[in-house]
Amino acid sequence: MDTICAISTPPGNGGIGIVRLSGKDALEIALSVFDAGSFSIEPKKMHFGTFNGSEFKDKGYLVYFKAPASFTGEDVVEFHLHGGMRLLKGVIADLLAKGARLAENGEFTKRAFLNGKLSLADAEGVINMISAERAASLRAAYRLMKGELTEKIEDIESEIYDLASSLEASLDYPEEMEDEVLPLSEEVLSRSLDKIRALLKSFKAGRRAKNGVNVVLTGEVNAGKSSLMNAFLGFERTIVTDIPGTTRDIVTETLEYNGVKLIITDTAGIRESAETIEKIGIERAKEALKSADAVLELSPSGVFTSKPLEGQEYFKVQTKCDLNRDKLGIKGGVYGISAKTGEGVEALLEALANLAGSQDAEFITEERHYSLLKQAESNLEDALRAKGTVDLMIVGLRAAADCMGKITGKVASEEIIDGIFKKFCVGK
Using one digit for the tens of pLDDT, what is the confidence trace for 24-40? Predict the structure, then answer.
């Protein structure tokens, strides 16, 4: 492969800027523009010297990673220079003039994948690490990047392949099939299905850890939705009055609790109204409810009428409990709170954050992985239903193994691979 280069630090001025090269000529090209004095260049050491550009010079460091002990599996060189964008762009121009090529989006990580340094799922963890905004999403990305999912998938894949091979061999020795292979096949299929279903079950929490928990406040007018919104945020974001219908439109804000992103939406009170603006607000409230992960129905009286959609978490919240302190706390599945005093609000926030799973939980976060695991589940169910029909069992097993391979990248198409790496920035 030819030698690529790119700026690896974000746009804008900074104390340090990094330019990266990868490829068989990386060191040769780097040394054509960098003077390290009398020192010989050793791998994994920082060498101080002078960058001799066509337009300017700069003092900085060169770091060399010799193949295959590098991120990409190729020779990699990094320049650590002052972080002015004009300077870094000048460095790139000089490297291009010396024979390097500007890297495409995600090409460094793609080369790492092609050279067996990480799986396709691991690579998706890398981009999630870069884009993570909250602690929970960062933890989930790290687990994916370091290969936890890949290990689980490869374990399932190995079981499936071994069983398929045994069944194929049994076709040549049918007398052994009934006594040995078939009883084993049902055991292996059930075990593999249990592992896949455990991963599928984790997706809901994993998606919330990555993207945040979408929380919608609903209830009758003057139920205390805006007051609770302000209590969640710690400042007065929405107007609170005793006048019914004060909130006319949806208001959405984001906060972080225990490392979890919570997207809180305050809505207009649900009631029959002839007033045009309020009616529009009520319709928007109903639309917001459809996309909610969690619905908080607020009621001062303790009477709840909402019917959440399948898959939604539903919380009954009795408000204004400072007027009836016996109702404070969690009783009979009802959260008794006072937005005015703040009592009970912390427990409600904790419950919402827990919807993203625990800090140590293992789960899948990607729609692509979920879809492929669902396909694999269906394939294995087909194989299990086929029972003694060996040919059909093998078809189901091979199809399921193929799904596993698409997750890790072993059998992924070039289109899928390119689509994933195009999400990366140029310098990664």
Answer: 999 999 999 999 887 78
Decide if pLDDT at 273 tops 50: no
- Tell me the C-alpha to C-alpha distance, in Å, between residue 74 and each of 108, 120, 292, 336, 414: 10, 18, 46, 60, 21
CB 401 within 8 A of CB 160: yes
Residue type, 428: K
Mean pLDDT of the chain: 86
- For residue 95, the Cα-to-chain-centroid distance in whole angstroms is 35
> The whole model's pTM is what?
0.82
Which ranges constitute the DSSP H helices of 354-422?
A: 367-386, 390-408, 414-421
Q: Where are the beta strands (DSSP E) in 220-331?
A: 251-257, 260-266, 294-299, 313-318, 329-331
Into which CATH architecture does domain 120-202+368-421 fall? Up-down Bundle (1.20)
For 299-316, write each residue's pLDDT tens digit. Answer: 898 888 878 778 788 999
Most confident listed range (85-94, 244-253, 297-306): 85-94
Say which residues have a Cβ less than 8 Å from residue 15's Cβ, sequence separation at least 6: 82, 83
DSSP code, position 17: E
CATH homologous superfamily, domain 213-356: P-loop containing nucleotide triphosphate hydrolases (3.40.50.300)
Give the mean pLDDT of 267-290: 57
- Would you kindly state where each structural domain of the chain is located, as residue ranges? 4-103, 120-202+368-421, 213-356
* 323-331: long-range contacts, CB 8 A cutoff, minimum separation 24: 327/302
Selected from 3.30.1360.120, 3.40.50.1000, 3.20.20.450, 1.10.3720.10, the CATH number assigned to the domain covering 4-103 reads 3.30.1360.120
DSSP element (H, E) containing 190? helix 182-201
Place of tokens 């460094």: 108
**In sequence order, which residues have a C-beta less than 8 Å from that of residue 329 and are 6 or more positions away?**
336, 344, 347
CB-based contact 337:318 (threshold 8 Å):
yes
Between vectors from CA 414 to CA 412 and to CA 419, what angle results, nearest 5°?
95
Q: Which pLDDT band holds residue 75 (cuts at 50, 70, 90)?
A: very high
Burial classification of residue 127, based on how many CB atoms lie within 10 Å of its CB (0-12 exposed, 13-18 middle, 19 or more buried):
buried
Residue 181: band (very low, low, confident or very high) from pLDDT cuts 50, 70, 90: low
Residue 376 has pLDDT above 70, yes or no: yes
